[in-house]
Amino acid sequence: DGGPGPVLLRLAPEPYIRLLPLAFYSLLSYFDDALLREEAFLHVAVDMYLKLICLFVAGETSAVSALATRSQDLQGQGDPVGLITKARHFLLQSIPRCPQRSFLNVAELLAARGDCDPEVSAALLSRQQAVPDADLYQEPQL
């Protein structure tokens, strides 16, 4: 129904699923500004960021550091703190550039893990509150 994504998530081993946020934010340099206009992108980016922080707090980033020392393709990706810093900077720069409709579903993400990064949460909530309620501007139906 939803394309190949759900099927791939069911087929991938659990350790790889847990490391998905690391892979997502390791590709930051390849993200295009056109992605920011996609309605679902902000939701995915925030979700991956919050999961990345949870990985770091849980101490599960040592696997990435070990892989980075063995693989030349991953050189420079072995620093989890650097990756979190880049991801945070990316989000804080992207939030003002995302369309208003992207902020409709971020409250559910922040309710679960919003206390991980208060500055990102505040930026998202302030932008979400700036979204005008569509029902306020519609004429009543008689």
From TrEMBL:
<dbReference type="GO" id="GO:0045589">
    <property type="term" value="P:regulation of regulatory T cell differentiation"/>
</dbReference>
<dbReference type="GO" id="GO:0036297">
    <property type="term" value="P:interstrand cross-link repair"/>
</dbReference>
<dbReference type="InterPro" id="IPR055277">
    <property type="entry name" value="Fanconi_A_C"/>
</dbReference>
<dbReference type="GO" id="GO:0043240">
    <property type="term" value="C:Fanconi anaemia nuclear complex"/>
</dbReference>
<dbReference type="Pfam" id="PF03511">
    <property type="entry name" value="FANCA_CTD"/>
</dbReference>
<dbReference type="InterPro" id="IPR003516">
    <property type="entry name" value="FANCA"/>
</dbReference>
<protein>
    <submittedName>
        <fullName>Fanconi anemia, complementation group A</fullName>
    </submittedName>
</protein>
<feature type="domain" description="Fanconi anaemia group A protein C-terminal">
    <location>
        <begin position="5"/>
        <end position="119"/>
    </location>
</feature>
